[in-house]
Amino acid sequence: MFQAYQLGRGLHQYMDGAAQFCTLVVTEQCNLRCKYCYQLGKNSQHTMSREVAFRAVDFFFEQPSPSEGIILEFTGGECTLEIDLVRDIVEYFKSQLRQRPGHPWQTAYVLMFSSNGTLYDTDKFQRLLWENRGHSYPAITIDGTKRKHDRARVFADGRGSYDIVARNVKLLVRQFPNASTKITFSSEDLPYVSESVIHAWELGIKSVAANAVFENVWKPGDAELYESELKKLADTAIEKGFWRTHRCNLFWAPQPSNPDKQEDDRNWCGTGKMVSVDARGNLFPCLRFQGFCLSNYSERSIGNIYDGYNENILRSFYCLRKSLQSKKMCLECEMREQCAWCCAHNYDSADSDTIFQRATFICEMHKARWRANQYYWEQLEECCGIKPDYFVVTEQAISCPI
Questions:
Q1: Is the pLDDT of residue 198 over 80?
Q2: Are 32 and 118 in contact (CB under 8 A)?
Q3: What's 215's DSSP letter?
Q4: Whether the Cβ atoms of residue 398 and residue 72 lie closer than 8 Å to each other
Q5: What's the CA gap between 20 and 93, in Å, rounded?
Q6: Which residues of 144-169 are buried (b: 16+ CB within 10 A; e: fewer)?
Q7: Which residues pair with 183 in a beta bridge?
Q8: In a 3-state reduction of DSSP, which class is residue 165?
Q9: C or N terminus of the chain, fewer CB within 10 Å?
Q10: Entry pTM
């Protein structure tokens, strides 16, 4: 029997994850100074030229056996600071499509604009969205309630950005009813977990991706507070009926797990399934392997748009899977289901420059989330008679619900 719940079904992915995910980091500059941001090397010196950008588009088209579709993501830094450049890249991409009438990307493409939302309502950005309606997907980050958002997402002078972003989120939801957002929690934000997800839902955002930061910031007592907040979120979702209509990746349907199955022994994040290009035309397995995102090790490029991929470097990324990154305690943990990691963070936190040493700073935080997830399903069955049905849970790394 079909179970009419949404909370616990995971997040949507464009073409169920079959589309190629290509990221252009058009600038390393940002107009915000978010306190938890991993991009510690933001700067105004590295902006992508049109020559590099157009060559990157050509490189995507030159790859053999093109995917069924493509997500062309524009990010930074803050991509809307370079809106003229972004518009030119979009026009060039479409011009290349017109020259390839039989190409699978003719209709199967998404233009994703990952933004902090402060410049969403500007005439130039709105014009870009309108000219590419049906293919545009703007992704704005609002971190929850005003007191939560303004604790971390601030301008250089310390002013909070909530009022501007919340106004633009309301516009976003009117234009894109299926829009999603991203909420990040650090240690100081934990008292606001429940209220922040609920606030995003009440603003009209039906799909929320949220996570506790992977970095080593957690203190004694944080896991207990996190669990309490997630249980409060579960109670509110059931009481107000959000479980029927809204999604958040903090809850998932329990799945039968078999570590011996190949599909269970896989890498968690999107590394290996995407490609990111920096301002110089270097290729990376994801944005976080670029130099301005790392603190302890140098950037880890996998090639460039002129010479192509370096297969010798790529070989290690092909081998990424759970069993080769995790400690024995992780593989045997009864709460291992849906436990996440970031390969670039693993690399930046490792004892040496390896990508095979899994960081476990969020271990207790995940266990708290796991216990709260069990509580949610127990309460949902008790209050509503709903049990989870078993299905394939999509990965959360590159959700795009168009």
A1: yes
A2: yes
A3: S
A4: no
A5: 15
A6: bbeebbbbbbbeeeeebbbebbbebb
A7: 210
A8: helix
A9: N
A10: 0.93
